[in-house]
Write a structure and sequence with these properties.
Multidrug-efflux Transporter Regulator, Chain: A, Domain 2; 2 domains; 5 helices; elongated; MerR-type_HTH_dom; DNA-binding transcription factor activity; MerR family transcriptional regulator; DNA binding
């Protein structure tokens, strides 16, 4: 199957497929004239890769997960990898939650500058 066919059926761009190949996530064969040739299973592989990306996993982690997927088993190492990624995402969410709270304060100050002590001139200045 040609790259455009896989892209169309999987709902991604050909550029995405080339990126997946660069990252080692997808390995098409090459025809005699150098064109990429994908097996039928590539469509499902691309959809799986998209699911991993949607879950917030970086390509290096996806690459580590694919052998477990190919083996068709859940191994403790795979669960450990996913748990580490979950913790990373949870920590990032906590950081973003703090940033959001700070931004809410700034917005509140901007809406009510008269109530902001930092915006008032200090005596003696």
């Amino acid at each position: 199957m040609r790259i455009g066919d896989v892209a169309s059926r999987a709902g991604v761009s050909t550029r995405a497929l080339r990126y997946y190949e660069e990252q080692g996530l997808l390995s098409p064969e090459r025809t005699a004239n150098g064109q990429r040739s994908y097996p039928e299973s590539a469509v499902q592989r691309v959809r799986l890769i998209q699911q991993f990306y949607a879950a917030g996993l970086p390509s290096r982690t996806i690459l580590r997960m694919l052998p477990f997927v190919d083996a068709g088993t859940t191994m403790p190492e795979a669960l450990d990898i996913l748990s580490v990624e979950r913790d990373r995402i949870a920590a990032k969410m906590a950081e973003l939650g703090q940033a959001l709270a700070q931004l809410d304060q700034v917005i509140d100050f901007a809406r009510h500058p008269d109530q902001c002590s930092a915006a008032r001139p200090r005596a003696g200045r």
